[in-house]
Amino acid sequence: MPDIPSVTAREMLDSQRRSHVGDIHHHLRTSGILKIRLQFPDDDSQYLERIILNLCAHHGHGPPTRHSASRGWFWDVRPSSAGLETRVPLAVSETMQEFQWHTDCSYESAPPKYFALQVLQPDRYGGGTLSLMTIAKLAHHLSPAVQKALFEPEFKIKIPPEFSKQPDQQHIMGSILGLDKMDNSLVVRFREDLIEPMNPRAAAAYEELKVALN
Asked: What is the CATH code for 64-213?
């Protein structure tokens, strides 16, 4: 992966400056990824919240996705014992399990193009590794026939209980590949434990996708 572009936020007011927000938008559109260094404490993620709102207001970004019926935009990616005590379903990010290749919100009818992670406390025990993949490179390992099959809405995608917004909706039907409406770039949804191909063509293409990912 090429070098990740970086922007520095020196104070909270930067989140309200049009030039600062414009830089963030530019890097997201051109590189798809961005690292922001905060030079001030912000354990409540106020800077991130304001940046998201200003990207929506001034650069046409869609509204943030709520994680579930009970939680808003933000999700704590940290181990939790609450589910063990109350039998509430835990997300993988709330456990000590390793999270395999996946895209966030893969169970949404329209998954978000971007997501944000704020590091509040670096892992002190050698974990916390974040691996990223360029979708354009992945596409080079998929034949045109496989890509065509993955564009078809022939996959049943389970909605995890902890992310459910409607109790009577337990899955959606959708495609694995799609095109971004703004620039026609390739987008993908993937989380192996949630996806079930609904016919032999879809199953064969899905197996080839998993081989390419590995």
From this structure: 3.60.130.10
